[in-house]
Amino acid sequence: MAVRDEPGRHRITAAALLFISAFLLYGLASPGNIPSDSEVRWSVSRQMIRSGSFAIEDTLVNRNFAVGVDGRHYSFWGIGQSICLLPFNALSLILEKLTPDHKVIRE
Q1: For residue 52, with 0-12 CB atoms within 10 Å meaning exposed, 13-18 middle and 19 or more buried, which class applies?
Q2: Between the CA of residue 106 and those of 35, 98, 101, what are the distances in Å?
Q3: pLDDT tens digits, residue range 29-51?
Q4: What would the DSSP string read from start to end of 40-101?
Q5: Within a domain: residue 42?
Q6: Is 10 contained in some domain?
Q7: Considering the domain boundaries, does residue 51 fall inside one?
Q8: Contact by Cβ (8 Å): 89, 46
Q9: Is 69 within the bounds of a domain?
Q10: In terms of pLDDT, which residue wins out, 105 or 99?
Q11: Is a pLDDT exceeding 60 seen at residue 106?
């Protein structure tokens, strides 16, 4: 008696192969840096976690901001993508604290 393969198993394997292929293709084609608008959104997300503020971090070297009445820098772009980045930023801040000797490298 022959053993039949489950049809769902092939779908999962095909989906995993497609995901890995797309991920690798994107990784090879990406420039390897964060564009300035993404950097601002990431900074806003970090500040939302750290201080509950929508202001951009003071250490960010960028011109994509508006100066508020309080003198702090704020993003031109909406808050939606920064909110979507919150879980990833929270994870990065936790990992940052767990590393014994984390140094920030600036260009």
Answers
A1: exposed
A2: 15, 21, 16
A3: 877 666 777 888 888 999 999 99
A4: HHHHHHHHHHHTS--BPPTT---S--EE-TTS-EE-SS-SHHHHHTHHHHHHHHHHHHHSSS
A5: yes
A6: no
A7: yes
A8: yes
A9: yes
A10: 99
A11: no
Contact indicator for 79, 42 with CB cutoff of 8 Å: no
- Contacts of residue 47, Cβ cutoff 8 Å, sequence gap at least 6: 53, 54, 55, 56, 57
pLDDT tens-digit series, residues 45-100: 999 999 999 998 888 777 778 888 998 888 888 889 999 999 999 998 898 888 77
- Rg of the Cα atoms in the chain: 20
The one-letter code for the residue type at 52 is: G
Whether the model pTM is above 0.90: no
| Tokens at 73, concatenated | 């820098």
Range of the domain at 56: 36-98
Tokens of 2: 């022959």
Considering its fold, how many domains does the chain have in total?
Answer: 1
